[in-house]
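Tokens help. One example:
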Amino acid sequence: MSGIDWKRPLEDVLGDDATARRQLAEHAQLLPIADARTSLRFVLARLREHWVASLATLVVTIGGAVAAAILPRLIGSAVDVVAEEGSSAQVWRLGAQILTIGVVQAVLMALGWAMISSLGQRILAGMREDVIDRALDLPAQTMERTGIGDALSRVADDVDLAARAVNNLVPNLIQLGFLVFITLIGMATLSPWLLLMVVIIVPMYVLAAVWYLRRTAPIYRQERIAMGARAQGLLSAIHGIPTVHAYGIERRETRHVAVLSETASILNMRVMYLVGRLVMGLNVPENLALAMVLLLGFVMVQIGGAPVGLVTAAAVYLVTLFWPMMAVIFNLDEVQSALASLARMVGVITSIDPAASPGTERPRDASIRLEQVSHAYTTDEDGAERVILHPIDLDVAPGEVISLVGASGAGKSTLASILAGTLEPRHGRVLHGGADLARADLEAVRAHAAIVSQDVHVFRGTLREDLRLASAEASDAQLWEALRRVDAEVWAERLPAGLDTEVGEKGQRLTAEQSQQLALARIALRDPAVLVLDEATADEGSSGARVLERAALEVARGRTAVIVAHRLSQARLADRILVMADGHVVEQGSHDQLVARGGAYAQLWGAWSS
């Protein structure tokens, strides 16, 4: 990092790396970031949920601060007793009181630290669950648009920063804050003259803090954005390792991640520069305060006739005040970072709630209806819309099997996602069983319709656990029946421990064909009324494709099914075929009708057959 020019403009760092520029621009506006007021309201609401623990923590923390504020007065009294040649009994009594109050302060401060940390961890645990819940529940199109980097950064980096703050920073700041407040009260009540120091010195610390916060807040925001973009770039490179090796673009990908890393590092170093300037500036109020306490002490004793003990107490108060105020200022760096992470977490929790149902309508049957449905994406360059699906009206009867065919980019997957209810169209209405999805109970819709794509994820765990994701209460007999229906029973029985075999990451590696069969077996267990198969057999060879086609047709039997067909042999068995081109449905009908018509489908079938 020492070789990085932190003054270098970020535009020069990014250079001609269009990918890095695009990802930074995307991560600057993808998932929402809460403002300070929203974050504060959220934290206060969580504190109210734990009001008993919050109240107890407050009492203990204030008690520790009060004990700390009593000590300077006792020390001043001891000085007066010695100066006035008081009895040794008085000195011992004051010594015992000082020792007792010191022990009480230490116990209360330690207990308060533990209570604040414990309360913070409980609140953070709930926030972590909420962030992960929101991230996992984001609409598919949102994740496709944002990429996983920003969501992963919020679930991992931001939660980690917040956890460290809760363990160390938050207890320290809360205790220091109360200590400063109680100490200022103690100084003011000790002598009205000491208010002069409070009025002059404290605002200087406040101004220093404000100066620092205003300059570092936007830098921290940029840094968090850069970290999210860096995570996305790194994940993209790792997931695409075979392609990276195949095209020999290792240096390009490495440079891309390095640019994003350098951007984050430069922003961090700019903050460190501001920290250095802040530390230099704080020498002024500190030295001024020391000079003032000496001057005021001299005037109060020599002219005002104040006891030496009072001035001693004032000096101890001042030294006691220096440490927590300086500590608060020095921790502002971590405060800003933690607040930036908190705002990103709260932004996801409060501004996005994909699980919240827009209405209460529930599907009454397995029919699907599209009314003037179209879809478009906004391009990154000029903000113009790129039309993916032109307006379409479509009625799918309960139990009907339709197949979508056409060239790549024709709009098949977009239409399939809209039919499944996982993609909200830009225009038009989608009805499942008469229920408008814009006003439907989402949980009911998700139970009503399911989609299986060619990208299937096998979760880490036993085969039994993976299957029960679709039906938590399914018996082993039901699991084996689902596997049998998709022709997976044979290979499942050959697994080392049958249903208890670990699969997924670090477990038994399943082939692409077996993974697809597992996904179809989940559908058999879940038993949705509507099933969408988005090229679920596209990546298999001839033998594997035939097995998966049989499995898909078996699972689709008795349901309303939409099949995005990669092979026309699969489309041939559908009740109705929709031929798509450039976002339009150009033909529809049964296989025999379309072949007899001699149009686009007939040409596709002729090429396929030959």
User: Anything to note?
Assistant: The two ends are 62 Å apart (CA to CA). The longest helix spans residues 250-303. Residues 538-542 have pLDDT under 50 and may be disordered.
